[in-house]
Amino acid sequence: QVLLVESGGGLAQAGGSLRLSCAASGRIFGNYAMGWFRQAPGKEREFVAVISRSGTSTNYADSVKGRFTISIDNAKNTVYLQMNSLKPEDTAVYYCAAKGFSFPSYYYRGDEYDYWGRGTQVTVSS
Questions:
Q1: Mean pLDDT across the chain, nearest whole number?
Q2: Planar angle of CA 14, 16, 22, nearest 5 degrees
């Protein structure tokens, strides 16, 4: 069983920064991928970023490109999301997700992922 636990959420001002962490326990097999999704109140969950196990492949939603950076530390079984130049529209619950065995072809789709964390709240004030 794989357990994902997010941390690092909180309140930030517009233009500020936060760094989210997702610690994985258990074993994810193969060339797994780790992703971040978010869900704002009244909206559907949306893709934010994904990274391969090796860290060589990354993809971002257009809305966060140039502002957010995803990274992975395999020694710590942890994936990070560095969020800079935050905007009020970044306010959401952020979820960590993992997919075992291979990098997902449709990485932007939540149903591609096998494991999910419980989420961490990010609130950006204007």
A1: 94
A2: 115
